[in-house]
Amino acid sequence: MSIADERVLATPPSPAPPPAPPPLRERVTELAALRERIRRGDPKATMAQHSRGKLSARERLGLLFDEGTFTEIEALRRHRATGFGLEARRPHTDGVVVGWGLVHGRTVFAYAHDFRIFGGALGEAHAEKIHKVMDLAESTGAPIVGLCDGAGARIQEGVTALAGYGGIFQRNVRSSGVIPQISVILGPCAGGAAYSPALTDFTFMVRDIAQLFVTGPDVIRAVTGEVIGHDELGGADAHASLSGVTAFAYDDEESCLTDVRYLLSLLPSNNREPPPAAPSGDPADRRADRLLDLVPADPGRSYDMRAVMAEIVDDGEFFEVHERWAANVVCALARLDGHVTGIVANQPAHLAGVLDVHASEKAARFVRMCDAFNIPLVTLVDVPGFMPGADQEHGGIVRHGAKLLYAYCDATVPRIQVILRKAYGGAYIVMDSRSIGADLSLVWPTNEIAVMGAEGAASVIFRKEIQAAADPDEALRRRVAQYRDELMHPHYAVERGLADDMIDPAETRSVLVRSLAMLRAKHRALPFRKHGNQPQ
């Protein structure tokens, strides 16, 4: 055998060529199957979610968005954490569904915790997905909705999970007043997770399934000995009526998400746009003669301010915010001739419409929201003053009342004040008077504007004379009548230029429509500042 033949025999055989990659069509088929598995999720986990009376994350998104418009991103994302068994459990989506779609034809971003995966708990990958969609919403100038149903931070990931919440909070604040942010609580939302809803513009909750609190009943019982249930502590009704943490409470998810969609139809996509206008079939010049009978001329008699609002706005429809909290002031979004308007109104049917700590805070927050999103303000005034009492003073009525004053003074949107009946003392000033910058002040023929009511004023001014009189009651009656005739007659404010016009109540709607149309081009130049230091 020759040397050449030996070399041939010694050469190893060539390796087999690698298998050809599967055809693209096969890979696309695999991808479609994977996406379908992700979409369906674990059937047992889905059944468990339904057994709790809750919809799945994707079912909720289907109710929020126009049909077929939701586009999901990062559906294939998986966490990379190790330890405590996490490396053996790496489900796709990592427990949160994020993306965008259309609501009434306009782009909206959303994230939805998927309680079926890790109980919706937030880890690093989970948080980064939310950061991504929040950044997209901010950069494109579109609202964002968070559907919250999660068990808080993922304990197995430690401080990494907490840092993820920090990134969410930072983005909440950065987008505040830039794009509308809405939180919908549809399950547990506890600990640090509770602060993101508190930083957003509106919070919705559903009864029986939603709980929102910083420390739960078990911790409270261990620390203070107090025994309280989840719903009593942080349920929808508790926050809607007692704390004011949530603006809206519902019996079911379907009605809740329907109203989220309705609210989005009233808000602009961002702070550089006007709120969306809609054609109105309600005539702009419609007279509201029923107002002549709704509001009693006697300033001491009660009535429902919401009935007045229904006569003024398009088709009698308005969307009230915080309906069950601080009911002595009404805050609502409505349309006037198709244009969205914010309405702040004293409510004589509750505590005589007096301003107190909670009413001041509620109205101030609403005024600032409207101003941030270019929504003009109409203020309907029938206020006897600020609530007296040591509990109010110690509760901070000075600083809370100052919040409302600050909010109005700082607002640059069109502002119209309408005084229906009484407007006494500092409350008259705070309820968007001409002196703090209202563009127009209109009064009804029943208006009474004064430092205080006639009886109180006469009792102070003529105290000695009344005490010395043979008939103190008759002396008081005479001086009350004098004070009314000289300082509280309906023409007093318009004669001195403190109000722009006295109007027929039945023409309130048409006057407001014309006035708001005139003010639509309003522009107010502000001094340079980083930001104001509003009362806390």
Structure in words:
The chain is of the alpha/beta class and 536 residues long. It is built from 22 helices and 17 strands. It has helices at residues 3-10, 24-40, 43-51, 57-64, 124-140, 159-175, 195-199, 217-224, 230-234, 236-243, 253-266, 291-294, 305-312, 357-372, 390-394, 397-410, 425-430, 454-461, 463-468, 472-487, 492-495, 508-519, and strands spanning 71-73, 96-103, 106-113, 144-148, 181-185, 188-190, 202-206, 211-213, 248-250, 318-321, 329-336, 339-346, 377-383, 415-424, 440-443, 448-450, 501-502. The strands form 3 sheets. Strands 10, 11, 12, 13, 14, 15, 16 and 17 form an 8-stranded mixed β-sheet that branches. It has a 7-stranded mixed β-sheet with strand order 1-2-3-4-5-7-9, sandwiched between helices. α6 (159-175) links the parallel β4 and β5. α5 runs parallel beside α6, α14 packs parallel to α16 (397-410) and α18 (454-461) crosses α20 (472-487). The chain is elongated and about 145 Å long. The chain starts with a helix and ends in a 17-residue tail after the last helix. The mean pLDDT is 92.
Task: Let me know the number of strands.
Answer: 17
Shape: elongated
**N-to-C span:** 101 Å
Characterize the largest beta sheet: strand count, sense, and whether it forms a barrel.
8 strands, mixed
Helix content: 40-55%
* Secondary-structure content class: alpha/beta
Contiguous uncertain segments of 5+ residues: none
Number of helices: 22
Mean pLDDT: 92
InterPro entries: AccD/PCCB, AcCoA_carboxyl_beta, ClpP/crotonase-like_dom_sf, COA_CT_C, COA_CT_N
Biased composition (Pro residues): 12-23
Pfam families: Carboxyl_trans
Domain CoA carboxyltransferase C-terminal: 283-518
